[in-house]
Amino acid sequence: MRLLTAFVSGLIFGLGLIISGMTNPAKVIGFLDIFGHWDPSLGLVMGGAILVGVFAFGYAKSRKTSLLGNTMQLPTSHSIDKKLLGGSLLFGIGWGLAGYCPGPAIASLLSDYTQPLIFTAAMLGGMWVSSKLS
Amino acid sequence: MIAWANFTPIPAFVGGLLIGVAAAMLILLNGRIAGVSGILGRLLQSWGKESAWSVLFILGLVLAPWFYSLAAPLPEAQIEAGHARLIIAGLLVGIGTRLASGCTSGHGVCGLSRLSLRSLAATITFMLAGIVTVPVVRHLLA
Asked: Which of B7, B93, B103, B126 is the most exposed place for a label (fewest CB within 10 A)?
């Protein structure tokens, strides 16, 4: 059952990314381009997701197990350290360079474009390198 | 200056709500965070008892455009980056998100929904880095 729910969650996540326009790098770069021609759409995507998320995670915090009986694995780290900020800095530069973050890149693999394949291959390479370093 | 012609508030908000529903499903039903970089990164690291659901979540994400195309033609994407820029960007995103233990989904959506200060710090940092990168790249390549 929890395999099916994970699949459906990934599917809805991907459909949300496509419908919201986030699989189009120009929309993402348009959001980051606040000094040029700013497209605020991504802000509304985050807003919509967080609006639902606040209720879901608020309820999740009050539970020890999930509705399907799994352990509730909420992140426990609170530390704001160099690793968090340095990593986010590198991520943000890469995000601004191409207009792809991990979710939209994966949800674009089966589109008519080869660019998401190249980006994703490099991203997986970067993740693999990162796991070997730490 | 707001580019009103490019602004798509309704699809953006509706798509955002769906992303929220997906994250809500995964935390409430499975007790897990819908963070794409974390799920991918852990899959690359080792195979364990968390791997099966992770593969299925990613499979859902991969198949989303196929399901979408059953109902309507996929929206067009405008991709400015050439191969070299895509590779550099991919490496930075891969390394950065693993160091930071999260990306736009894990920190941006799930973390902010949890009201986590750590995720807020991450989100502000990657947004500012992206906001600075866009004009810098434009000037360098102009």
From this structure: B7
